[in-house]
Amino acid sequence: MNIVILTGAGISAESGLGTFRDVGGLWTRYPLEDVATPEGFAKDPALVHEFYNMRRRIARRASPNAAHAALARLEAGWREAGRGGFALVTQNVDDLHERAGSRNVLHMHGELLRQLCGACGDRRDCPGDLSAAARCPACGAGALRPDVVWFGEIPYRMEEIGDLVPAADLFVSIGTSGEVYPAAGFAAEAARAGARTLELNLEPSIGRFDEAREGRASEIVPLWVA
Ligand code: BJW
């Protein structure tokens, strides 16, 4: 049996990382056009760096919560028992899944702790804060940006995800509002191919699932995994 799990900001909320669209969420404090689009970065790189430097500092201080830990346990047990394929697709740019012990994590919206050169495409770990003045260590010329996927850009790992989703027997969506494509279309795509679909979220999202359980991720994910 193949399982595909999709996670969103809600799974990291109880680790102290902000969600985007909840009351008081990141997009209510920072207009997404300004900080999460290539046009916003071209217009005001310093503002975008400030936004991601702030989030990078919070993410470095944060710890995985019981939901991240439960998914890592599930993956380990799944592999050990040879039960089938296991993939964890995350829209999150934090590294809390990896720090909880998850191994097969596909970061479709990139990683906060990585940097990307806008000129030569070099991608590497980001040692600290980024600034508009910093230049790429590989080509020496390009401006650096966070290695994350902004609106209008193509998400990462789409080929692999495109194979995994229709092959899923069980598709589980955790802590995502289902408002951002292409991730918002995965559950329907998996269902069309015959998967059972389950949502674990604080409140029902706009997606359609065979089953939905409501509550805080740190409570309902371990209960589901147990
Ligand atoms: C809890 C909880 C707790 C809270 N426990 N739960 C019209 C139609 C269709 C598509 C488009 C369209 N117009 C434009 C588009 C495309 C666009 C898009 O989807 N726009 C929509 C707004 C309509 N998408 C794109 O541009 C994407 N690229 C693309 O489509 O390329 C074309 C292409 C695709 C595929 C192949 C080839 C070509 C790129 C999207 C990039 C999104 N980037 C961001 C920023 C990343 C960097 C960063 O982190 O700053 O990704 S935006 C932001 O939203 C971030 C997130 O990953 C993403 C999703 O948010 P998420 O995770 O769902 O968070 P929230 O806040 O929305 O929801 C949190 C949920 O948790 C809520 O439900 C809460 O209830 C719950 N919760 N506490 C459990 N304790």
UniProtKB/TrEMBL annotation:
It comes from the Bacteria. It comes from Pikeienuella piscinae. It is an enzyme of class 2 (transferase). The lineage of its organism: Bacteria, Pseudomonadati, Pseudomonadota, Alphaproteobacteria, Rhodobacterales. GO terms for cellular component: cytoplasm. Keywords: Cytoplasm, Metal-binding, NAD, Transferase, Zinc. NAD-dependent lysine deacetylase and desuccinylase that specifically removes acetyl and succinyl groups on target proteins. Modulates the activities of several proteins which are inactive in their acylated form. This is NAD-dependent protein deacylase. 2 residues (Tyr-52 and Arg-55) present in a large hydrophobic pocket are probably involved in substrate specificity. They are important for desuccinylation activity, but dispensable for deacetylation activity.
